[in-house]
Amino acid sequence: MNIKPYNKFLSPLILLVLTSRISYGGLLGPDKYYGVVVFDRWGGCTLYNGIFLMYIAEQVKSQLRPYSNEAIEINATDVFQLDDLDDALIRKFVYLRTAPANPDWLNKPGLRLKTSAAFQNGEKPSVIIEVVNTGQQELEIDSHDLAPTILTQRAGKYATFSASDGPSFALSTGQSFWHNWPKWMWLKGQRIEMPGGGAVWQSNDGENGRPRWSMKKSEALPEHFTLQPQQTRQIKLTFDLSDGEYEFLCGYGGVSHYLTQCIASNLTAFDIKDGRAKTIVIKGR
């Protein structure tokens, strides 16, 4: 996860206050973890939980092939993390079972997520996220738990900042469509101004201050919204990315070591060359 602190003095403070229902960030070690098994276009494997993910080491990822696109529970016995604001690498684990449902957290029967390219080849890349209620009951969607993720080939300067040991890593994670940052806090008798909570309409971890993704500010999601049976809500994101290979997905869930299932979308692949994007069709999908 690539949260950039305002400075070294404030980084512990930000770790404490970046919260919705859960803490954004923290030390990760041997524990039980939950998420959807995702294999990307390069063969990299992650245990995906929407807001966050855990990388699965190359030497053990084949154990999860039978559970691709399924929400599972594992017991991780060897976990490596570069720092407490980064996604971690699971190097040894034991598969336990299908991730148990938790009615106090994620109880959204009929909720589905879908992503698709929203650009013509040669244009600036963008995607459409569809949040769909396929069931017969009204669903309330919490934007704290809905999160976009950008994966990219493990190349270039950003790869050194990831715990991934595979062919890919997450360029943008750790941010949902709503956050609860306070507008200010008292620290050692001083009032520290913070960005304030509210709707998120662009990523906070871009290069040279540029967001990796953005949406029209007027279309930013409310904290909660309702989907009637068979209703779909669309969200359009536009990317500002360097040349390279990418995949995008979206998830609804929580933190990966919390007792919850996650709902994950399909992956949408695209390449960028000379600033122009091209959709990529992955064989077998």
Can you tell me about this structure?
This protein is mostly beta strands. The protein is about 0% helix and about 40% strand. The protein has one domain (about 10-280). The model is unreliable at about 1-25 (pLDDT under 50). The chain contains 1 helix and 21 strands. The protein is globular, with a radius of gyration of 18 Å.
What characteristics describe this protein?
five-stranded mixed beta barrel; disordered N terminus; 285 residues
Layout of strands and helices, then pairs:
Layout: H1 11-17, E1 31-39, E2 45-48, E3 53-56, E4 71-80, E5 89-98, E6 111-117, E7 126-133, E8 139-142, E9 146-153, E10 168-172, E11 178-179, E12 184-187, E13 190-193, E14 198-199, E15 213-214, E16 224-227, E17 232-239, E18 244-252, E19 263-264, E20 268-273, E21 276-280
Parallel strand pairs: 3-5
Antiparallel strand pairs: 1-2, 1-4, 2-3, 4-5, 6-7, 7-17, 8-16, 9-10, 9-18, 11-14, 12-13, 15-17, 18-19, 18-20, 20-21
Number of continuous helical runs: 1
Q: What is the mean predicted local confidence, pLDDT? A: 83
What sort of overall outline do the alpha carbons produce when their principal axes are compared?
globular
SS class: mainly beta
User: Cα-atom Rg, whole angstroms?
Assistant: 18 Å
